[in-house]
Fold each of these.
Amino acid sequence: MDRIYLDYAATTPVDRRVLEAMQPYFTGIFGNASSVHAAGREAKAALEEARATIARSIGAQPAELVFTSGGTESDNAAIAGVLHAAPADGLRGIVTAAAEHHAVLSPCEEYGRSGHPVFVLPVNRYGVVEHESLHSVLKRNPLLVSLMYGNNEVGALTPLREIAAQVHATGALLHSDAVQCLGKIPVDVNELGVDLMSLTAHKLYGPKGIGALYIRNGTPWSPFLFGGGQERGRRPGTENVALAVGFARAVELGVGAMPEDRLRLSSMRDELEKRVKEEFVGVLVNSTSAERLPNILNVSFDSSQMPMQGEMLIVNLDLAGISASSGSACTSGSVQPSHVLTAMGRDTATAAASVRFSFGRMNTEEDVKRVVVVLKDIIARMKTN
Ligand SMILES: Cc1ncc(COP(=O)(O)O)c(C=O)c1O
């Protein structure tokens, strides 16, 4: 059985061209980028070229990018660095939203426990923060607002451009997690007006374990890890040149192919959405009307019309050869419905009976057809069991 992978929002395979670009840096060009000798200088040159490529793709200056271990570290570093830089008697509040990734929500909770005022804004039924709620929380003079650009579960896009003006008018800083966006939609830090932005390589056919944090020049941000002076003193540790080179190559390829990829992905996404709506009663498309990423379709089966054991959906899809992602997460042994879907107003049972299909380069229209056939069979069986 040929498996169908529809979980590209979770991760992507490394593009062969990315692998080829990285390979020399594991063996031949292995120097420590901080060494002053020729081997070190060669590694350093590759690292800086990678930084410049990634920076260019988002409209940033190379010096504004810090390499990290991925999106999680970038999100944590954005928040921690801003808090560390703030004067002890200054502003301390952090604003975020209920549909954010745990890489933002969990550090915010942690800072909340240590006394920072944390405001978690609700989202509307499309998964987006409303202007009014942001407007009213900004009256509390927060230090930092962290709102993701593209939501990883439902694909909803935050209107960062409008929000940035609102946030900056109060003197707060704006961080955005754009991990799901690079290579899918245009990402330009100046157009979006962000002060900090998180990126990762493994969502766009790059290697796992490398990401970047964009820190706009002049943004008050202090390091919180100490050691060597790498990354201009902002992130100590021997630089992973091979992964940085792979990240840059993935960005180059991903941003180059974006216009066609975007059309192809959204056409498969739209076809699946249409077919699912036609075939099943009680199917709810999550975040259909908001501006959204081209590759994500998240559907729920309404518990009042089609009661079922939601968690079994993904298991059955997997048994039928389809890798998708569920609307629930296994936390400490118990299955919890997705915090994003519940924040958007889905009841617990409906949220648990949800599937995220996320398309990528290897998918075809045939995959869409097969998913519909398989889903029909699974739903028929689940209804009768
Ligand atoms: C929106 C978002 N933020 C952060 C992350 C974490 O990124 P990484 O896996 O590179 O740590 C992910 C990955 O799942 C994500 O989708």
Note: DSSP finds 13 helices and 15 strands in the chain.
Amino acid sequence: MKAKNQIKSTDKHIVNLAEIVGGARSILYLKEDLVAYDCDGFTIHKHLPKAVVFPKNTQEVAEVVQYCSENNLPFLARGAGTGLSGGAIPLNGEIIISMVRMKKLISVDLENRRAVVEPGFVNLMLTNSISDKGYYYAPDPSSQYCCTIGGNVAENAGGAHCLKYGVTTNHILGLEVVMPNGEIVEVGKDGIPDAPGYDLLGLITGSEGTLGIVTKITVRILKNPEGKQTVLAYFDRVEDGSQAVSDIISAGIVPAALEMMDKTAIEGVEAAAFPVGHPKDIEAVLLIEVDGIAAGIDEQINQILEVCRKRNVREVRAAKNEEERARWWANRKTGFGAMGAISPDYLVQDGVIPRSKLPEVLSKINQISEEFGLRIANIFHAGDGNLHPLVLFDARIPGESKKALEAGSQCLKVCADVGGTITGEHGVGIEKREEMRFVFSEEEIAAQTDIREVFNPYNFLNAGKLFPSPGRCVEIKKELKAQAKIG
Ligand SMILES: Cc1cc2nc3c(=O)[nH]c(=O)nc-3n(C[C@H](O)[C@H](O)[C@H](O)COP(=O)(O)OP(=O)(O)OC[C@H]3O[C@@H](n4cnc5c(N)ncnc54)[C@H](O)[C@@H]3O)c2cc1C
């Protein structure tokens, strides 16, 4: 009661929500506090939430959700807010349900190679908590030092090492989910492969917080590889670097990671916090890591060196020691933020293409850059064709944010046109809703919104995300339903 009295708002919903989560210290509702939650890593759109609540456990999440749905209040979940497509932006003045207090490592079961975490548990903390026992958690988004595993599940996050080990969905064994009506359900029979029934785990992973709120996650953990080595290769021509990527994979090597940065990206990372002395005049750098049984590492490294030399590499060498390797990775993994050293603002795009189309697509992205008069840096998971064109712009110049969005959209169109798609790991959110039409027909979009309706019938949970503004798909849905009735 004391905490309730401390609430300065006369809004009954604020008062009631505060009561559910334990009082004034567990809710934000003043404008000056809410501005910190008006966007995520996609900073072009900003909207204030009605309030932010900080539940401590699943029961409190369920009660908040039930309260919101009974009172027609839109709501959404938020992890660390590092999402790059605007998934956690409260477009409709939502109640944000922050997961940051639910950050426990619940259990580790080395024998069965699994761990159970709360959704606010930070990705890298998991590896840090088990590495002394010889284990790690494989999905490693570059934001892993702060993003949450709940957010990773929602976005089906990838990362540099997902080329060999797969993305988040390949490492999720079970979920506890609060449904949009407040019901708590268990999804997935912990760790049992191919359990009977629909693959709801697969459906919820990557659903961008539109089907339910994840409150507990069982993940697969892996044994540390016996050995690993990393190679750095500089190319004078992007085409040679791209061709080396294809050649490495065609040679039958499956690197743990195969990353590429172009000249503009190199300018950024060298001007930022972790420079490693990349030459300023090269067109592309590849970072290639292999891991596995110690005895096989040297042979793979020699093969990679040979492939790079055949593709006119200017310089190629393996890391001298662990310190150098870690430095190379810090240089790469802080690449997005490094753009801040060469541009006031940047927009991260996230398309996927068949690897063989790399030279063609990079040249088209260059054309887009020229056409829009905006520099575009490219940092990407080259091994799996997941591009991140970074459109550099200055939001203070009127109209430039819009231009950056259009240039980003054009980059995605190029990816879709060569047989790729519009997101590899950052999700659709609000950023790429309209671009869904590059890869899905109206009927396919309508079918997907039908699935959302099964879980989230009134669309109070994270509305306005993932799907384009209702266009013809609404009509098509009506037609299909009418036909089904007649049939
Ligand atoms: C510098 C930088 C580098 C990045 N590198 C990568 C990368 O290499 N690979 C990659 O995949 N991504 C990357 N990202 C994007 C981002 O970090 C990931 O999408 C991450 O998974 C988001 O986690 P989060 O905790 O920040 O989630 P948030 O941004 O808070 O939320 C993201 C979405 O998940 C939903 N959500 C959050 N928690 C839950 C929950 N418990 N239940 C249901 N829905 C929930 C939200 O509603 C929202 O729709 C990067 C971002 C930055 C800023």
Note: The two ends are 58 Å apart (CA to CA).
